[in-house]
Specification:
The protein has 1 helix and 17 strands. It is an all-beta fold. A hairpin with a 5-residue loop joins strand 1 and strand 2. The protein starts with a strand and ends with a strand.
C-alpha cells in the first residue's frame, strides 16, 4: 500500500494527499482544513471510484475508509504493475515562490510518468539543463501515479480493471474564495488491460464533515455535475469544533 503523503497548503485550504486512491484521511485525524490554520475540517475523506464491465463481468477500483485499491507506480507496456513499487511510492511537488520561481522536485520531475512540463526547446524530453520546468497549475502542483493491479481488491471484492491513474492535484493562492478556498484534482486514467470497457462509470466519493458532522445535509445538482453539503440549521456547533455562524457550505464540482 502506498505510504506517501503531502499537503496542498498554499491557499486557504490545507488538504492532506495520499497515493493510495484516497484523500484527506488514512487513519487518525482527517485533514481538509478550511480556513487553513483554523483547526476546523470540512471533509473527512474522499477518493476515486472507477467501475466498468467487460463482457458482462464487473471490474472496479475504489474504497471508503480502508482497504484502498490503488498502489504506487505505473503499469508497463504489457499492463503489469512494477515488481518493486517503492521507487514510485512518493508524491512529487512544486510550489511557486513569491518571486515566481519554483522550489521543489525540478530535477526529479517525473515527466517520464506523465507529469506535465514546459518543454523549452521542443525536443519532447524533460531536461532541466535545457530550461525545461514542471508545469505548475495555480501556485502549487503535486503529481503521483498509481494503478489498481498492485494488490488484492479486499474492499470491493471485484476484479481489477488494469488501469494506470496519473494524478495532478493543485491549489491557488488567491484572495478570491472561489479559488483560494478550493483544491483541484486532475485524474488521467489509462486503460492498459488490453480489454474494452463497457458501461464505464467514474465517481469521486466524498464524506463531507462540515465542522460539526452531526448536523450536515447533502444534495446534488446533476445538471452542473455538482454535489454539495450544508448545515441543517443556522449554527454549526463551535465546540465540535465547528464553524459557528454563519454556517458554511461545500461543493464538489466535476469540471470536465
Amino acid at each position: 500500500l502506498g505510504s506517501a503523503a503531502t499537503d496542498l497548503d498554499i491557499g486557504g485550504v490545507r488538504a492532506r494527499l495520499y497515493n493510495n486512491g484516497g484523500l484527506f484521511w488514512r487513519g487518525g485525524d482527517p485533514l481538509y482544513e478550511v480556513p487553513k490554520g483554523s483547526g476546523v475540517q470540512a471533509i473527512f475523506a474522499a477518493g476515486l471510484w472507477i467501475g466498468a464491465e467487460v463482457e458482462g463481468s464487473l471490474k472496479f477500483a475504489g474504497a471508503d475508509y480502508a482497504d484502498w485499491e490503488y498502489w504506487p507506480g505505473p503499469l508497463d507496456a504489457d499492463g503489469a504493475p512494477p515488481a518493486d513499487c517503492e521507487p514510485f511510492d512518493r508524491i512529487w511537488t512544486d510550489p511557486v515562490q513569491p518571486d515566481g520561481s519554483l522550489a521543489g522536485d525540478i530535477e526529479n520531475w517525473p515527466a517520464d510518468l506523465g507529469a506535465a512540463f514546459e518543454d523549452a526547446n521542443g525536443d519532447g524530453e524533460y531536461d532541466p539543463a535545457d530550461g525545461d520546468l514542471p508545469t505548475v497549475y495555480g501556485h502549487q502542483t503535486t503529481f503521483w501515479v498509481m494503478n489498481d493491479l498492485g494488490g488484492p481488491h479486499n474492499w470491493s471484492a471485484a476484479e481489477p480493471l488494469g488501469v494506470e491513474v496519473r494524478v495532478t492535484a493543485f491549489a491557488v493562492d488567491s484572495a478570491d474564495p472561489a479559488y483560494g478556498f478550493s483544491t483541484f484534482y486532475r485524474y488521467e486514467i489509462v486503460n492498459k488491460s488490453g480489454e474494452t470497457y463497457e458501461n464505464l462509470r467514474i465517481g469521486f466519493w466524498n464524506d463531507a464533515d462540515l465542522g460539526d458532522f452531526l448536523d450536515d445535509f447533502v444534495g446534488s445538482d446533476p445538471s452542473r455535475g455538482l454535489s454539495f453539503a450544508y448545515n441543517a440549521d443556522n449554527v454549526d456547533d463551535p465546540a465540535a469544533p465547528g464553524y459557528g455562524t454563519p454556517p458554511p457550505a461545500l461543493g464538489v464540482d466535476l469540471l470536465s
